[in-house]
Amino acid sequence: MAKLYMGFDAGTQSVKVGVYDENFELVASRSLPTELSYPHPGWVEMNVDTYLENCITAMAEVTSELRRIGRDPKDIAAIMGDGIICGIVGIDENARPVTPYINYLDSRTTEDVEALNAKKLSIWGRETGNAEASPMFPAMFARWFLRNSPEFSERGVKFVHNAPYVLMRLAGLKGKDAFIDWGAMSGWGLGYDVQAKKWSSEQLELLGIDEKYMPRILKPWDKVGGLCEEISVRTGLPAGIPILAGAGDTMQSMLGSGVFEAHQGVDVAGTCAMFCVSTRGIIPELSQPGTGLIFNSGTLPDTYFYWGFVRTGGLALRWFKDNVCRHEGDGAYYGELSAGAEKIPAGSRGVLFLPYLTGGYGEEKEASGCFLNMTMDDNQFVMWRAVLEAIGYDYMELADGYRRAGVALNRITVTEGGSRDPLWNQIKSNMLDAEVVRFKNPGGAVLTNCVFGAYATGGITDVKAALSKVISENGVYEPVPELVSRYRELFENRKALVRSDMKAAFSRLVRMREM
User: Fold this and answer.
1) Which residues does the UniProt record annotate as the domain Carbohydrate kinase FGGY N-terminal (predicted)?
2) Which DSSP category does 69 fall into?
3) From CA 64, how far away is CA 367, in angstroms rounded?
4) End-to-end CA distance of the chain
5) Element (H or E) spanning 267, and its range?
6) 69: Cα separation from own chain's centroid
7) What does the H/E/C string look like for 163-201?
């Protein structure tokens, strides 16, 4: 019988489940939204069981669709998922959560990060490629839980990421069985040796994290168990389907965009807008304090990449559509906004948006989200273009750093949801002075997971070759020299405004929020 493969992507805004056939054509899919809560300023929490329940519900609906179209769920050869690389939850011995799930949007650890970085320890950059701690690192969340969560102190046995949590529950595993793949491991930011693919006892001791709380490290395609009876009943899938260790979302998105070699650029236009470059290992110039870059291990052996980010990049777009335009749940409205914004000149007539809705970082740590320089002539389309350009300005800073380190960025692949917006792609091409390429690959990380499912179960022998067959170019955006120059001038003005002119104002605004 022809084989089928199931994959899921546990992202910040949704859980996507898809089934692909042996030719990696999509057979059925379902997506369900997640929810974020904001219990205190700078805090962002989620219930990790929302990921589990969304996944189970979507799997059940996909299974029903398979039967409706005459496909047998018994032909599903493997299940693999990916999830957020910068986010963890504490679990007990039965693999049940005892803490909230905290991810990269949360900034509660900022003071702890600053205190740790003040020690100027070289081991971080030497072993992880990350010269400094960041408020988005799971290592810092673990420190916070150990100090502030009585529930974890009493019952916690492991820290896990969201995709491994779901995969553990699908397989009916216990807390002691917790695992993480070597790519998602590098999402911890600190606490491991990135090239040896193991936890670092010295780093964990410096962090005050007992190694007993760390999950075992596996290859992404390792089998961790089979679909358990409980989930089989709830989804309609046969018990025993192999469950794989899974991967990080960014790693899978890069592979799904055809990034197999070093020195290729990728814009992961998701909730956390991420600008990545692939490398052969640590580049000392990029692993220096102050760069703001993160270094990670890829899904495949001996693959690595740096990335910079706008934490609320994609989330800022959703915030504007839902909270400002009042079109919550209306995904089509993004298209209407961009159609109107396309008529607005580059630079949004001087209107600026600062996308720091969950706080700034680095030199802009006190910055907050705001629109600047508006007049009575401006409308939501001007504001929308300013939101799109805001992420581009932060990308320009990252691109400048990459280029100074000798990484050429003449061609950048764009992936995830934002890649479907032609206006945003053209804006990025002009702002970054580079060719922007979009591939016809609607499955993204989910498709890549299914390719690994085939690899793990003998359906294919070469992941790169299989992905190359299903990836095809369907959009190219070339920079316009006049607009490249305009954005560069605007960028220099924007940088001076935020880092110098408005520094005192941001400090005052922070104090006003606390009154």
Assistant:
1) 4-256
2) T
3) 48
4) 66
5) strand 265-268
6) 33
7) HHHHHHHHHCCCHHHCEEEHHHHHHHCCCEECCCCEECH
Residues 164, 23: Cα–Cα separation, whole Å: 27
Which positions ≥6 away from 296 have C-beta within 8 Å? 85, 129, 183, 186, 187, 194, 248, 250, 251, 304, 305, 306, 307
Q: What is the pTM of this model?
A: 0.81
Interatomic CA distance for residues 189 and 170, integer angstroms: 27
Residue 354: partners with Cβ closer than 8 Å, 6 or more residues away: 367, 368, 369, 370, 372, 390, 498
pLDDT in tens, 305-330: 998 877 666 788 999 999 999 999 89
For 271, the 3-state DSSP assignment is coil
| Residue with token string 């990449």 | 305
**What is the mean pLDDT of the segment spanning 500-514?**
88
Q: What is the dihedral of CA 426, 430, 436, 441, to 10 degrees?
A: -30
The DSSP letter of residue 363 is: G
Angle at 271 between CA 269 and CA 275, to 5 degrees: 40
Rounded CA-CA distance 262/282 in Å is 12
Contact 333, 341 (CB under 8 A): no
Of 186, 34, 32, the C-alpha closest to 105 is 34
Q: Give how far Cα 86 sits from Cα of 136, 155, 248, 373, Å.
A: 6, 23, 9, 34
How is residue 364 annotated by DSSP? G
- For residues 448 and 464, the answer to whether their CB atoms sit within 8 Å is no
Q: Which residue, 398, 394, 402, is CA-closest to 356?
A: 394
DSSP strands (E only) in 42-176: 45-46, 76-83, 87-91, 101-103, 158-160
CB 311 within 8 Å of CB 284: no
